[in-house]
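I have been asked to look over a protein record a colleague put together. Alongside the sequence sits a line of tokens, each denoting a local backbone shape. Please read both lines and tell me whether the tokens look consistent with the sequence. I do not need a full report, just your reasoning and any doubts. I have pasted the whole thing underneath without changing anything.
>
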Amino acid sequence: MKALLSKIKNDDIRKGVQTITDKYSFIYDYYLCSFSGRYHAQEPNLLAHVKRCVYFANHLLDEFDASDLDRDVVIAACILHDIGKLFCAWNPQITPIHHKNIVKSLFNELHVQYHKNTGWFQHQDLQQAHPLLSSLIVSVHPFKYSRDVQDLIEVHMSHWAKKICRQPDNLLHYIMCSADYLASRDIKIDKELL
């Protein structure tokens, strides 16, 4: 995560993102990108997905000659865009003890799907809404330009969750959506480039 954070040049944005990633660090190492195991074949965990997302975003930002501030906002959104998955799925084998009771009580009240092949319980409606949950987490830890980061997070699933997510309407929205989409595909990238 340290290498990803170092890509953010604006101190306020970097410190704000670091506050959130420090608090929820376990999600990056332990949570899967695809709880069903059907997608994100190149990504064993959320951190791998974030690295790939930042990689593709950087290439798109270069192509469109983005400003330093726009670059920092997009990279911050790439790092935080899936943190809301924290509330969408639960694996009793790896969820940290301080988080288990919260998720367990939530999942007892909701209809969930169990994926035998991965060992994860998942609530499909919450999964579709995870961009909004990710944005909510960011809103609880505000920092300079955090609303711009939330704006990108809220549209990142627009091509998959059309009924829940706002549709992209500017270049940074399209860069965010494209980077997330490309990261989820089975595109091989030299690990040294990540």
Notes: The longest strand covers residues 113-115. The chain has one domain: 2-193.
